[in-house]
Design a protein that fits this description.
It contains four helices and three strands; from the N terminus they run αβααββα. The protein is α+β, with helices and mostly antiparallel strands. It has a three-stranded antiparallel beta sheet with strand order 1-3-2. A hairpin with a 2-residue loop joins strand 2 and strand 3.
């Protein structure tokens, strides 16, 4: 049985700690000290799962749904996102 990997959570955590940042696979590999091929496979899977979003050739960012969920986990609001939080 394959050994479970923490790589997806490591990569997602990096994006959560750098909200709104767009980064390359190479930069992720270097910043997290994870082999490039591993980063490639994991990021591809995270994009398929809707947790990351590809924004250009080899460039990725946290998916909108994921960053909204992260705001909720931190008790954040939609302030500054152009939404009116007041009741109608």
């Amino acid at each position: 049985m394959p050994k479970p990997t923490r790589r997806p959570s490591e990569i997602l955590q990096w994006f959560r700690e750098h909200p709104g940042e767009v980064t390359s696979l190479k930069a992720l590999s270097l910043n997290l000290n994870i082999p490039y091929n591993t980063v490639f496979v994991v990021v591809k899977k995270l994009v398929e799962e809707g947790k990351l979003r590809k924004v250009g050739r080899g460039l990725y960012t946290l998916a909108d749904e994921e960053s909204d969920a992260d705001d909720n986990r931190r008790g954040g609001t939609n302030a500054g996102r152009g939404t009116d939080a007041s009741p109608s």
